[in-house]
Amino acid sequence: ALSVGATTLTATLGPVSGNASLTVTPPPLAITTATLPGGTVTVAYAGTLAATGGTPPYAWSLIGTLPPGLVLDSGTGALSGTPTAAGTYAFTAQLSDAGTQTASQALQIEVAPAPLVSLAVTPANPSVVIGGTQAFTATGTYADATSQDLTAQVAWTSSSPAVASIDVSGLATALSVGATTLTATLGPVSG
């Protein structure tokens, strides 16, 4: 079959002939998207719902909820926008064609929290006597402008461990006279 439609087939042998009608239908409509890429809060998202078969044009719709900030283009199946909330969002993609066929596929998009963009260590420039201690706090700021106390999650280091040491909770102990820089690091971000 070369295209969708109907035709009459004729077989002839000498003066005798016979006819048969042949109807060619489109292949079954099927959504071929099995998974969608994950997203991140404040980062532009792009995903596409895809299908085969049926008779174009297609019309896409959803049952359920996309992540806040994302929209579906009902003509192309494109999912786009910028997610505003982290979480796992489950929905069913529905598709209908220009004929009478329909298809559906359960899908989900996982949205990760906004990325950490900076760490601030406080207090900034304290003075401590030898043998004294000072508690430090590491506050992370994320791409969505939220902040969180990350003191217990960061890795603490001292640029001069002979001057002051710092433990995993952010408590520094002055060991000798001098200056040191205390750094909090979480992944690729330091402060």
Structure description:
The protein has 191 residues and is mostly beta strands. It contains no helices and 20 strands. The protein has strands at residues 5-13, 16-24, 30-31, 39-40, 45-48, 51-52, 59-64, 70-72, 78-81, 87-96, 102-112, 116-122, 133-135, 137-142, 147-149, 155-158, 164-166, 171-174, 182-186, 189-190. A four-stranded mixed sheet has the order 4-11-10-7, with no helix packed on it. A hairpin with a 5-residue loop joins strand 8 and strand 9. The chain is rod-shaped. 16% of the residues are buried. The mean pLDDT is 95.
Distance between the termini: 67 Å
- What structural category arises from helix and sheet content? mainly beta
Supply Rg: 31 Å
Low-confidence stretches: none
- Our estimate of the beta-strand percent is over 45%
Q: How is this fold's topology laid out?
A:
Blueprint: E1 5-13, E2 16-24, E3 30-31, E4 39-40, E5 45-48, E6 51-52, E7 59-64, E8 70-72, E9 78-81, E10 87-96, E11 102-112, E12 116-122, E13 133-135, E14 137-142, E15 147-149, E16 155-158, E17 164-166, E18 171-174, E19 182-186, E20 189-190
Parallel strand pairs: 4-11
Antiparallel strand pairs: 1-2, 3-6, 5-9, 7-10, 8-9, 10-11, 12-14, 13-18, 14-15, 16-19, 17-18, 19-20
